[in-house]
Amino acid sequence: MNDISSDGYAHSEIETEGEFAGWAYWPGDPYERRSGPFYRKREKNGEQVCAFRAEPRHMNGAGFMHGGCLLTFADFALFAIASDELGEDNAVTMNLSGDFLGAVPPGALVEARGEVTRGGGKTIFVRGLVTGNGKPALSFTGIIRRLAAR
């Protein structure tokens, strides 16, 4: 695992095996590692893309992805999308809201993309879209609050 903090990802490591070899993840967040694991990378156009593979453990009783899993992934994506704004700073989620647009089946490639709609200060606003196999599953907006250094 290689540190890639020079690419704007504070304290990230690179996955070295499997489908997401070459993608970054945050090793210091055990909840996200257990929930996903969730990955991210910067595309050639500079956009951040986040992804994971839908497994049976991510599903609800109806056999589709649990809404809580989609929102947890959206929360992860907030910070990846805002990583250039955040730099090395720590931050917390102040608000996360989403609209469920479609079901995600087991085995789907789940991706999130988005944009910072306002940044530059202590409060960063983000919006994005989560897809399952390319079909819209969740639109989300979030507000991140930069924390003061301790």
Overview of this structure, please?
With 150 residues, this protein is α+β, with helices and mostly antiparallel strands. The protein has one domain (5-146): Thiol Ester Dehydrase, Chain A (Roll), CATH 3.10.129. Helices cover 17% and strands 37% of the residues. The chain contains 3 helices and 8 strands; from the N terminus they run E-E-H-E-E-H-H-E-E-E-E. The protein has helices at 30-35, 67-81, 83-86, and strands spanning 13-14, 24-25, 39-42, 48-53, 91-100, 109-118, 123-132, 135-146. The model is unreliable at 1-9 (pLDDT under 50). Keywords: Hydrolase. One of its GO terms (molecular function) is fatty acyl-CoA hydrolase activity. This is Thioesterase. Residues 63-130 form the Thioesterase domain.
Summary tags:
HotDog_dom_sf, six-stranded antiparallel beta sheet, disordered N terminus, Thioesterase, 150 residues, single chain, 37% strand, Thiol Ester Dehydrase, Chain A, alpha+beta, globular, 8 strands, two-stranded antiparallel sheet, 3 helices
